[in-house]
Amino acid sequence: MTKETAALRDRMVTIGDIAKRAGVAPSTVSRALSNPDRVNAETREKIQKIAAELGYIPSPLARNLRMGSTGTIAVLVPDVSSPVSFQIVRGTQNQIKATGYTHVLINTEQAEDFELDVLRRLRRTADGAILGSSSLTDEQLAQLASLQPLVTFNRPTPGVSAVLIDTATAMGDAVSHLASLGHTSVTYVGGPSTSWSNAQRWQAIEAAAQKLDMSANRIGPYPGDKKSGAAAADEVLTVGSTSIIAFNDMLAIGILQRLSELGISVPADLSVVGCDDVMGADFCNPPLTTIASPIEQAGRMAVSILLDRMAAADGSAKPYTTTLPSELVVRASTGPARGPAR
C-alpha cells in the first residue's frame, strides 16, 4: 500500500477519489459501482479493484435512494421520559445503528390523534415503524400495517407483528410469593385503562389469588408515574390489604415514598411489589421487589422483525409475534404479613 493510498483510507473515500485514481469520470465510477453492466468489463474491474483498495464505503443515502428507500426507521413511544421507554429506545437504537439505518424517535405523549397523524405522515419519510404501547385501536393498527411495515411492543393486534413480554406469569408468581409470606389479601394498583399489559396483569393476579384463597381487589386506573403513587397509596390504605402489586415500578416507588411520609413501615405494615425492574428499583428504601422484564432485548427483537418485513417488498411476509419471559425478583419491600395496614 502506497502512502497516498494509506492517507486516503484514513478519511472518507469519495467517488471522486476513485475517479482520479482510475483516470475516468466520476459518473463512470458511479455506474461501475451501482450499475456494473453499463460499463465495459475492463474499466469496471479496474474501478472495483481501486474502490476495494481504498476501502470505499457506498453512501447509505445513495443506496437507499436507488432502492426507493428512505433509510429511516421510526420508533414511537408514549412517554420518552419513562424508564421503560428509555430501555425500548436504547434497545432499538443499538440494533438500528448496526444496520446502517437512521433512528428517528417520536414522543406521542399518549395522544391518539397525534400518533395516528404521525404514522400517516411517516409513510413518506420512514421505511417502517416500531410502536411502544400504542393507544390506537386494533382496526387503525391493522390498516396502517397494511400500508407500511409496523411492529408493536406489548400490543398484540391481528394482522400486525408484535413483541410481547409475558409479565402475567410473573405476576402470578408474585401473588404466590405474597401468599407464602402469610398475606391473605392483595390490592392491584392499575395502570392506564388502554394498556394491554395492565389488563393481562390484573387477570393473572385475580386468577392466582383465587387459587390461593386470597382476596384480590383493584384500584385505579392511575398514570404509570411516580407522582400518581401518592394518591394510589392513600387509596390503598382505605382498602385494608396487607400487600400491594403496582402496575409498574414508578407507581410502586411513589407508593413507597408516600407510605414513608405517613410513617407506615414497608414491609412490616405493607408489602409492595412493582413491575419492570427499572434502573433505581434496587436503590429504593427498601429495595423494591419487582418483575424483571427484558425490555432492551424486546427493542432489539422488534427491529429484527421489522427488517424482515421491510425486506419483503411485495408484502408477502406474514405477521409474526414473539413473547419474551419475565421473572420475579425478590427484594426487601416484601415480608411476612403482620395484620392490616394502619
From TrEMBL:
Entry keywords, A to Z: DNA-binding, Transcription, Transcription regulation
InterPro entries membership: HTH_LacI, LacI/GalR-like_sensor, Lambda_DNA-bd_dom_sf, Peripla_BP_I
Gene3D superfamilies xref list: 3.40.50.2300, lambda repressor-like DNA-binding domains
Residue ranges of domain HTH lacI-type in the record: 13-67
MF GO annotations: DNA-binding transcription factor activity; transcription cis-regulatory region binding
Domain of life: Bacteria
Pfam families: LacI (PF00356), Peripla_BP_3 (PF13377)
Name of this chain's protein: LacI family transcriptional regulator
